[in-house]
TrEMBL record:
It is a single-pass membrane protein. Keywords: Lipid biosynthesis, Lipid metabolism, Membrane, NADP, Oxidoreductase, Transmembrane, Transmembrane helix. The keyword Hydrolase does not apply. GO terms for biological process: long-chain fatty-acyl-CoA metabolic process. It is found in: Peroxisome membrane. It comes from Neomonachus schauinslandi. This is Fatty acyl-CoA reductase. InterPro entries: FAR, FAR_C, FAR_NAD-bd, NAD(P)-bd_dom_sf. Coiled coil: none annotated. One of its GO terms (molecular function) is alcohol-forming long-chain fatty acyl-CoA reductase activity. It catalyses: hexadecanoyl-CoA + 2 NADPH + 2 H(+) = hexadecan-1-ol + 2 NADP(+) + CoA; 18-methylnonadecanoyl-CoA + 2 NADPH + 2 H(+) = 18-methylnonadecan-1-ol + 2 NADP(+) + CoA; eicosanoyl-CoA + 2 NADPH + 2 H(+) = eicosan-1-ol + 2 NADP(+) + CoA; a long-chain fatty acyl-CoA + 2 NADPH + 2 H(+) = a long-chain primary fatty alcohol + 2 NADP(+) + CoA.
Length: 455
């Protein structure tokens, strides 16, 4: 039997960020492998007109929890949703709920985090924030990475006698194996880029093609997290151990390879109603990148908005494109660099696991087949994010063929117009044109004469 699964049985566990991408997968794995756990406390705040209970009901009725409900039919009875707001003092938790958490909780998984790369420091006036932010974050690319470092520092300073461990995942993507391949439910990170590329909105990006795309499946992160929880509680390390959950050192894949694999999958399973044909060009030159942004991104958006105006509809594509390019610009720091992360603690932990635990809580990224994973990722985006039916693939392929024909016709028309304008202005261009036409005529005449002689 799995020692890790047995460890969590009978425990009361608190999860922050349980309504987020990683929190959901963590909660699902706990219930599936340790159905005898006592209770999972999750901190939830009402959102979009939904109560805390309605949000829990929505999570449990998603496809992610289908296997759990077969194994643990009373799963809804083992979730205790507590109203909380992590932006408020004491998380705005009531005294009664706080007392229950303090007296009953055995293990805490802190998964809550901001996922916005453009967040601001908000406790001061905007003018002061703009002035001090560069001085505070130093060489860090944004507030996101700065607050991650602050959070780790606070944890280590305030932990005292608690058994604490820190897991640092890289770019978290769709599930690799569990509970099924390709599950994803948010637009963060690669998922949003896959949609933008698959729909034809994003066709070029300033990135270093050979830089490591340090993507890590969410279920790999969750398996490592649960193994770390067990090891930290049972072995009680003397210092806070940091575990890097990354793929770059052990099983690297660069952005060019990933782009090729994504495009190859689009050929087989295209997205419906694409704006343009999918493409993925990488350039390291800023001027070239700006050129392609103007020609391949902004210009088509402006033309399409002009068409919408002509047909009496509200233009929207320019606004969408500007928002997309802003998001992509915030990622450029990361897609133009490679990092090496120590995996010493992660590999040490793997060696401490029994063969059964290595199987049930697999976080060995060396076993990951990137071609298969990326294909499942794109399929997952299509099914779970875009809600597109596989039955629509033939029509989607026909739509891409129409877009290809429009592309060829448009380029041909531009070439003819440009050439015609050149002929009208240049005697040399006219002479070249007449020479080409004369040569083609003579070649065809010779070909016909040769065919007649052979007959």
């Amino acid at each position: 039997m799995s020692m890790i699964a047995a460890f969590y049985s009978g425990k009361s566990i608190l999860i922050t960020g349980a309504t987020g991408f990683m929190g959901k997968v963590l909660m699902e794995k706990l219930f599936r492998t340790s159905p005898d756990l006592k209770v999972i406390y999750i901190l939830v705040r009402p959102k979009a007109g939904q109560t805390t209970q309605q949000r829990v009901f929505q999570i449990l009725n998603s496809k992610l929890f289908e296997k759990v409900k077969e194994i643990c039919p009373n799963v809804h009875e083992k979730i205790r949703a507590i109203y909380a707001d992590l932006n408020q003092n004491d998380f705005a938790i009531s005294k009664e709920d706080m007392q229950e958490l303090l007296s009953c909780t055995n293990i805490v998984f802190h998964c809550a985090a901001t996922v916005r790369f453009d967040d601001h420091l908000r406790w001061l006036d905007d003018a002061i924030i703009d002035e001090i932010t560069p001085k505070l974050i130093g060489d860090r690319p944004n507030i996101y990475t700065y607050t991650k470092a602050l959070g780790e520092m606070v944890v280590q300073q305030e932990s005292e006698n608690l058994n604490i461990a820190i897991i640092r995942p890289s770019i978290v993507g769709a599930t690799w194996q569990e509970p099924f391949p390709g599950w994803v439910d948010n637009l963060n990170g690669p998922s949003g880029l896959i949609i933008a590329a698959g729909k034809g909105f994003l066709r070029s990006i300033r990135a270093t093609p050979m830089a490591v795309a340090d993507l890590i499946p969410v279920d790999t992160v969750v398996n490592l997290t649960l193994a770390v929880g067990w090891y930290t509680a049972v072995h009680r390390p003397k210092s806070t151990l940091i575990y890097h959950c990354t793929s770059g050192n052990l099983n690297p894949c660069n952005w060019r390879e990933m782009g090729f694999q994504v495009l190859a999958t689009f050929e087989k399973v295209p997205f419906e109603r694409a704006f343009r044909r999918p493409n993925a060009d990488f350039t390291t030159n800023t001027i070239t990148s700006q050129y392609w942004n103007a020609v391949s991104h902004r210009a088509p958006a402006i033309i399409y908005d002009f068409y919408l105006r002509l047909t009496g509809r509200k233009p929207r594509m320019t606004k969408v494109m500007n928002r997309l390019l802003k998001t992509v610009s915030m990622l450029e720091y990361f897609v133009n660099r490679s990092w090496e992360w120590s995996t010493y603690n992660t590999e040490m932990l793997m060696s401490e696991l029994s063969p059964e635990d290595q199987r049930v809580f697999n976080f060995d990224v060396r076993q990951l087949n990137w071609l298969e994973y990326i294909e499942n990722y794109v399929l997952g985006v299509k099914k779970y994010l875009l809600k597109e039916d596989m039955a629509g693939i033939p029509e989607a392929k026909q739509h891409l063929k129409r877009l290809r024909n429009i592309h060829y016709l448009f380029n041909t028309a531009l070439l003819l117009i440009a050439w015609r304008l050149l002929i009208a202005r240049s005697q040399m261009a006219r002479n070249v044109w007449f020479f080409i036409v004369s040569f083609c005529y003579k070649f065809l005449s010779y070909f016909r004469a040769s065919s007649t002689l052979k007959v």
